[in-house]
Amino acid sequence: xxxxxxxxxxxxxxILILISSATNQLAAAEETLGTVRFTAGKSALENEPVSVxxxxxxxxxxxxxxxxTADAExxxxxxxxxxxxxxxxxxxxxxxxxxxxxxxxxxxxRAGSASPRQELTIKETDKAYQIMIGDRPVLSYxxxxxxxxxPLDPLYGRSAHIHPLWTPGGKIVSDEFPPDHAHQxxxxxxxxxxxxxxxxxNFWEIKSKKGRVRxxxxxxKQTGPVYADLIVTQEHVDLTGESETPALLxxxxxxxxxxxxxxxxxxxxxxxxxxxxxxxxxxxxPEYHYGGMAIRGGRGWTKENCAFLNSNGKTRANGxxxxxxxCDISGRxxxxxxxxxxxxxxSPDNFRFPEPVRIHPSMPYMVFTPxxxxxxxxxxxxxxxxxxxxxxxxxPALARTDAIWQQYANPPKASIQLTAP
Length: 421
Description:
By secondary structure, the chain is mainly beta. 8% of the residues lie in helices and 43% in strands.
């Protein structure tokens, strides 16, 4: 029986239903739900995220995509909706390509979904949550207690840190249990000189047996076409009392951005740290020269094969405790190897912004720290929130880092206009 004969066997009313359904689906795909527009700030924007507050729409995170009005090819641009409990939902997208300073771009909102160039996934291993873009890993957050290699003291074992950190080219730019300072594992947040319930404690130097930071639980993890979110809770545990007592509970929100290019110059992710007292006792933090959001550079990075550069143009030689908007550490395992590195951008909303950056005189590590500027404390009922953006790159420090910081600190102004029902 031929295809035309098959159609002859289908009742006419069913054919009409099928045609009507196909027509409705096509109309839905072409239907414009509204428009969004944004204007770049004083510096150019290039494959960086933009958001706009959504009014009450009923859209879910998978229901919309964008098309740029100036795009003759009508290329579908992935979009993702962030549901927020205490404020308006946000529509996120990454405008492809470069947006010149001061330029306005306009996009139509369409019903449906658009596949990203590469898929974001969160893979759970036996010890870590590993976030990947396509088939390439970006970072691993270690939730299991990792034992140090012999002959290091088992006391150095830890969880609640990010390692490895990979560049898009596959270079690892972090280290774990480095022999000279085994407590500096990957990327972590901890305070050194602290006082809890009248007792001196130390969450940074694990071997002191005074304190440590450890993973508590997974809050949530989700992936979408624009970003992946991993939210975890960590405990800053005091060990100086009669029993182990969490002094702080910390929530890390780790968000990895999916740039719309196959081979980006860098991976980009954000961390928001929300620190709260775990008891009715404050954590007092006397003035000290380090303690905060830290990174230990790659294995084999020596003083001769490692370089620092901050937003003020300062280096290892003159940049210690300089108050900078961003700081980069780059290195290579030997003089013939290519450079790769890691940049921390700090938010203007952070306590004591711009925070001093501790740059070690010989080792490959740095930490954004408010502690050198005087005594402070975290009080019950008053969360201490800090935010950072991270760029993990191949090659030396990125030439456009300051422009990226400008967009992070002063996001482009965006507006939305929905089509009347």
